[in-house]
Amino acid sequence: MPDREIAYDEMLSAMGRDLLPNAIRKLTTLLGRRDVISLAAGAPSAETFPLEELADIAARVIRSRGQFVLQYGPTRGPQSLLEAIADMLKGRGIASAAPSRVVITSGSQQGLDIASRLLIDPGDVAMVELPSYIGGIIALHNARAEMVGVRQDEGGIVIADLREKIARLRKAGRRVKCVYTIPNFQNPSGVSLAIERREQLVAAADEFDLLIVEDDPYFDLAFAEGVRPQPLAALRPDRVIYLGSFSKVLAPGLRAAYLCAPEALATKAELAKEGADLSTSVLDQAIVLEALRSGLIEKRLPELRRFYEVRCRAMLDALRRFAPAGARWTEPAGGFFILLELAAGQDANAVLTQAIDAGVAYVPGQPFFVDGGGANTLRLAYSKETPEKLAEGIARLSRVLGGREHAGAV
Amino acid sequence: MPDREIAYDEMLSAMGRDLLPNAIRKLTTLLGRRDVISLAAGAPSAETFPLEELADIAARVIRSRGQFVLQYGPTRGPQSLLEAIADMLKGRGIASAAPSRVVITSGSQQGLDIASRLLIDPGDVAMVELPSYIGGIIALHNARAEMVGVRQDEGGIVIADLREKIARLRKAGRRVKCVYTIPNFQNPSGVSLAIERREQLVAAADEFDLLIVEDDPYFDLAFAEGVRPQPLAALRPDRVIYLGSFSKVLAPGLRAAYLCAPEALATKAELAKEGADLSTSVLDQAIVLEALRSGLIEKRLPELRRFYEVRCRAMLDALRRFAPAGARWTEPAGGFFILLELAAGQDANAVLTQAIDAGVAYVPGQPFFVDGGGANTLRLAYSKETPEKLAEGIARLSRVLGGREHAGAV
User: Which of A143, A234, B67, B321 could form a disulfide with A120 if both were Cys (CB 3.0 to 4.6 A apart)?
Assistant: First the structure.
């Protein structure tokens, strides 16, 4: 053994030295306690997993096609799965979707990582929403992007703010590469991009010659029946890297998601993926393909939407009853999240330990704000607990935050 | 739609612009023809996959623990799997192995990508073997490493050449960060690092204050009974990022591998993985854990070793009979590969199309040599075809290369 201590930090790359912990996942791992109601984890309810169907499918694909599904597979994914996803995306209005534009990714997080690595040189600028998804922020950070936050209101990203900031950055000689957006039922805010702003956003991308990274994991989870949001990729496919996922509508433990991009970029994404992990789990891809083909995913959607709508309503009802004075919150039309904004000056991070001791957990909003703001915000997920526990969780939270007390009623 | 064409290339990062295709995988996708004997794909034989056992395990883990194995999982992997792998590594002589040093990766390729990203700033130097594994070369390339090749002989990497080159690079002010090595039954050469050189290699890492990235997917596939190679990580755990895989001893379609590194680096690898894909397929990890716990992997090893030894011998026999004059080849003691070196001046790439037309495929060696050499070498994999087809493949190859003709005998 060497005499000197090894200075690992000096051996690291700039990326290696500056890695950020993911505030959500850090928190999730701290939460072993059964008596804590989790409004923290943005995970689907395990109640929604079709266990029997997936157990059958897994055994069947291994027995009938094991020589393929247990073997190395093509980096981009099997042609049959690429075709099934292209068809599905055509159903979302993305008329240009085709296997040549689709690449399977090992979860949408890999799509975010690949898009960031393909586009960003150190110091390049990415425009992100205030607040934005931590996983996307981390991927851009790891590519050493400078992130500039754009204001959001109830209608999503504020186009005037976006345009003004891009114009100013360009004037200052900065390379602005992309806008990262979650247009539907955003994580963490629950907000959706208003219809008229979708056209305005892609027009801005045209004008400023930018790409849009459109992260759309909640597309299928609009509460209102028949509502199908319009992807930005449907409006301007040549400007959009579209990321989709099966985590919320099937099961996140299968790490098979996809991106759809202009062919030139899909080809690059495939090459980047080859270096990143050769291919996504071939078994997971085979299971997802069967779930798509058999209609398992499609037929469960109405039920899933109701499932999460009931939980969202339970949380909203509880907020109306218990929320502390001066608090405001978003009213999502789908997805998993509500953003709670406390009165100015309050600090959601400071009371987290107290909240966990009181039996309720949430994710403080600040890490979702790349401008350092949001200290008085909380991300509340209604996806994982029962309606009764959600109400009880909000009541507990309210006590910690000094809200109206109705303990007897819960 | 915008009037102008979009110049995607100008939007890319330097990494995105310079992506290299993987010569192996490119070739594999070209090979649809049933009548072509593939000495190209370095994949395990599908005959070795325990289909029934894995189908049972998959269905069982979903039915009995679906709420966990279909849910998001911890980035580093489940504690139970980290413990099982740490125990296995102790059995390889890596006494320091512990769950705090292990990180599950989505295939060893992700381990290579993460190690490269953690260590390399653009222009940093990585020392690699001549030849080396293309997947490792691509990962280092994507991190924008400058790779410097080190000579190999029958005893593996030549330590004097390594030391001389590192010394010269440092004198020139270059930051040399790591040595990337595959010490056992190397891909593509089949060569193993001699015992005495293992101590010399880790001593050089100490002296030059470098890390070693030790890629060891073939550890369990020594042909001789009872042979257990000594990992570099067993000699100097504080200097080594050790990468292991289940692809060759269970099934590569499950993308669950692992790295073992000093704690400070394992922590960084976990954070990097969080940004790269959140976690490896939770289902794949659960299946691998069951395969480890039940002894499925361990009990099949003697049979697997014989399986590949028989194939290696068949190829070596055929080479002795058919190889063209002036050709030399390696004689592996395990693993999947033989490197064939033609007489100087011959070009393995130039005759590939002709070979495929003649019904045999291989991977030209040049892409494995970062110094641009190796034009007269071929990587021959004996892992995928039957002994009879291997002999026939070498006979076909021989005809193309102008070797001795014994067509009637095959």
Answer: A143
- The span from the CA of A151 to the CA of A158, in Å, is 6
**At B241, phi and psi to the nearest 5?**
-100, 110
Rg for chain A, CA atoms, rounded: 22
Burial class (CB in 10 A: 0-12, 13-18, 19+), A115: buried
Q: Is the ipTM of this complex over 0.90?
A: yes
- Chain B residue numbers with beta carbons less than 8 Å from the beta carbon of A138 are 274-275
Q: How many residues does chain B have?
A: 410
Is B100 near chain A, with CB under 8 Å?
no
Contacts 24+ apart (CB under 8 A), B345-351: B345/B376, B346/B375, B346/B376, B346/B401, B347/B375, B347/B376, B348/B375, B348/B376, B348/B377, B348/B378, B349/B375, B351/B400, B351/B401
Q: Over the stretch A362-407, which tens digit does the pLDDT of each residue have?
A: 999 999 999 999 999 999 999 999 999 999 999 999 999 986 654 4
**Cβ contact B138–A211 (<8 Å):** no
- Say what the pTM is: 0.96
pLDDT at position A25: 63
pLDDT digit string (tens) for A90-132? 999 999 999 999 999 999 999 999 999 999 999 999 999 999 9
Alpha carbons B119 and A19: distance in angstroms, whole number? 12
Q: Which residue of B has its CA nearest to A55?
A: B59
Task: Please report which helix (H) or strand (E) contains residue A360, including its range.
Answer: strand A360-361
**Angstroms from B43 CA to nearest CA on chain A:** 7
Residues from chain B contacting residue A40 (CB–CB below 8 Å): none
Among A62, A141, A254, the residue with its CB nearest the CB of B70 is: A254
H/E run at residue A166: helix A159-171
What per-residue confidence (pLDDT) applies to B408? Answer: 39
Q: Whole-angstrom Cα distance, residue B16 to residue A118?
A: 4
Q: Pick the residue of A25, A96, A180, A255 with the most B CBs within 10 A to test the interface with B by mutation.
A: A255
Number of other CB atoms surrounding residue A277 within 10 Å: 29
The string of pLDDT tens digits covering residues A195-205 is 999 999 999 99
Alpha-carbon torsion angle A134, A135, A141, A145, nearest 10: -90
Q: Is the Cβ pair B71, A49 closer than 8 Å?
A: yes
CB–CB of A71 and B253 under 8 A? yes
What is the Cα gyration radius of chain B? 22
Residue A32 contacts B where some CB pair is shorter than 8 Å: no
Q: Which of residues 111-170 of A touch B (CB under 8 A)?
A: 113, 117-121, 124, 135, 138-139, 141-143
Distance CA B173, CA B192 (A): 32
**For residue B395, is pLDDT > 70?**
yes
Burial A180-208 (b: 16+ CB within 10 A, else e): bbbbbbbbbbbbbbeeebbebbbbbbbeb
Q: Which chain B residue lies closest to A136 (C-alpha atoms)?
A: B275
Parallel, antiparallel or unpaired: strands A337-341 and A328-329: antiparallel
Q: Which residues numbered 231-270 in B keep a CB inside 8 Å of some CB on A?
A: 236, 238-239, 247, 251-256, 262, 264-265, 268
Cβ-proximal residues to B70 (8 Å cutoff; 6+ apart), any chain: A46, A49, A51, A54, A251, A252, A253, A254, B62, B282, B283
- Tell me, what's the pLDDT at B406? 47
| Alpha-carbon distance B88 to nearest alpha carbon in chain A (angstroms) | 23
Q: Residue B151 to residues A54, B234, B366: CA-CA distances in angstroms? A: 50, 24, 14
Q: Flag if A253 and B107 touch (Cβ within 8 Å).
A: no
